[in-house]
Design a protein that fits this description.
By secondary structure, the protein is an alpha/beta fold. The protein contains 15 helices and ten strands.
Length: about 450
């Protein structure tokens, strides 16, 4: 490779790199992140970009395209149209045809499940205003909403008898052992956007719940929120101080807008079980600025059974990704009976602390294994070779309303999740119920009898 080619190769990579940063920055701003938040996250984003092979392939694309065009031009110079056609055919037409056929096969296979679902149109709320069933049974009927939501989406949620909209502001932490929780406490733009959204929701009779989350930007060794732990006492105190500031900001915002519930954290297994005194203190501090009901979302596998401070909260909160089947494509009865061992454990904890339970998260993808691994995140590579199973997703929600929803200890659920950017159809593996039988199951389950 000549010096000239090396120069243009490096130049094209640098130009592509800066274009990516600008595009990501625009996405941050459009989604109500401030410039300072973007700059705070820049170092961790750069690390993630650099470690991703696909990112480097993307950066090389402009140069490769230029080289490909040069390859065609050389073919034309050597053999006129026959040389161009030959080079164009095997360097472009053949690869594109193969990719097209693979995509078509993948799409056919993904949508090949045979599932005849009988929709119950009578379950939907046809009014522009919420039926406010939660005032009758005091149960949360919620769903986490991500993306820009407008009146059209609010009406879709209202029609499915969803009555609580869960907003998730994020703070960022570099790694599981990083003592700084980073968020912009002066982001008036986001707070004002929340205020407008809360007002629009209340005009339809809908309630809003703020549920802050921590996102680990650059996790090492597969660590996540549950693994957050500091090396020294001083670092623990630093983390707890910064986390308290983050939580209090949204507790105050919730109180300012008279929101009925506040979830003060999720899935901090090591912190909640090893340092419960911090959480007892934090609960008292939150109550000093917020007058509504407070909960915490404990992970389903062991955290909710080991927490000792449930008596200080208004509700026991569980991130309820319980496995309810041992097979892919389970039959409905298998999913239904799969709840039995979990219900007895939840009932025991509820009685021990004399508290009702809110499932602070419950969700299922449209995949054959959704009942086995409901906590599993969406995987693009796996999804290419995996069927979409709206039947499994529908069975999971149907079983939830048949078993847990009817328990005396049940005080509500926050479904994961609704993405406003998703298409309104059933052609995806995602958690979203929009356009799928799952949305009908939610409408039926949330409708008061």
């Amino acid at each position: 490779m000549t010096k000239k080619k090396i120069f243009w190769f490096l130049a094209s990579i640098l130009i592509s790199f800066f274009l990516v940063l600008i595009a990501v920055g625009i996405l941050f701003i459009v989604n109500d992140f401030s410039i300072s938040e973007y700059l705070d996250r820049m170092p961790s984003m750069l690390k993630q970009f650099i470690s991703a092979p696909l990112f480097w392939i993307f950066l090389c694309l402009p140069y490769l395209i230029i080289r490909l065009i040069g390859f065609w031009v050389q073919g034309y110079k050597k053999g006129r149209f026959s040389g161009l056609a030959k080079r164009f055919g095997y360097s472009f037409i053949l690869p594109v045809t193969i990719i097209f056929l693979l995509v078509r096969w993948s799409t056919w296979y993904q949508n090949s499940e045979q599932f005849e679902y009988k929709w119950d149109e009578a379950a939907y709320n046809t009014s522009d205003i919420s039926n406010r069933y939660h005032l009758e049974d005091q149960k949360v009927r919620g769903i986490h909403v991500f993306g820009r939501i407008d009146s059209v989406h609010l009406q879709k949620l209202n029609s499915a008898n969803i009555e609580h909209i869960i907003l998730v502001p994020y703070a960022y932490q570099e790694d599981y052992n990083s003592p700084d929780v980073v968020y912009n406490s002066t982001n008036s733009r986001r707070d004002s956007a929340y205020a407008e959204f809360i007002s629009a929701s209340k005009s339809l009779g809908l309630e809003v719940i703020i549920k802050p989350h921590i996102w680990i930007s650059n996790p090492s060794d597969g660590k996540w929120r549950a693994d957050i732990a500091m090396a020294t006492e001083s670092e623990w105190q630093q983390w707890e101080k910064s986390y308290t500031e983050f939580i209090l900001h949204y507790a105050r915002l919730s109180d300012e807008h008279h929101l009925p519930y506040f979830c003060m954290g999720n899935e901090f297994y090591i912190s909640t079980t090893k340092r419960p005194q911090f959480w007892v203190s934090l609960i008292d501090t939150v109550r000093s600025v917020y007058s509504g009901k407070i909960t915490y979302g404990a992970n389903w596998d062991k955290e909710f059974k080991e927490i000792t401070f449930w008596d200080k909260l208004d509700y026991i909160g569980i991130q309820a990704y319980f496995p309810v089947a041992n097979t892919n494509y389970p039959k409905y009865n298998e999913v239904l009976s799969g709840w039995d061992p979990h219900l007895s454990e939840i009932d025991s904890i509820s009685k021990a602390f004399d508290k009702k339970v809110i499932f602070t998260e419950l969700g299922y993808k449209s995949t054959p294994d959704a009942a086995r691994y409901p906590w599993g995140w969406e995987n693009f590579t796996e999804n290419i070779f995996q069927q979409i199973s709206t039947r499994t997703q529908a069975y999971c929600y149907q079983a939830f309303f048949e078993k847990p929803w009817k328990q005396e200890w049940m005080a509500g659920v926050m479904i994961w999740q609704w993405q406003t950017s998703e298409r309104d159809d059933d052609g995806n593996h995602n958690f979203t119920p929009e356009g799928k039988p799952a949305i009908n199951e939610l409408a039926k389950g949330f409708k008061s009898n």
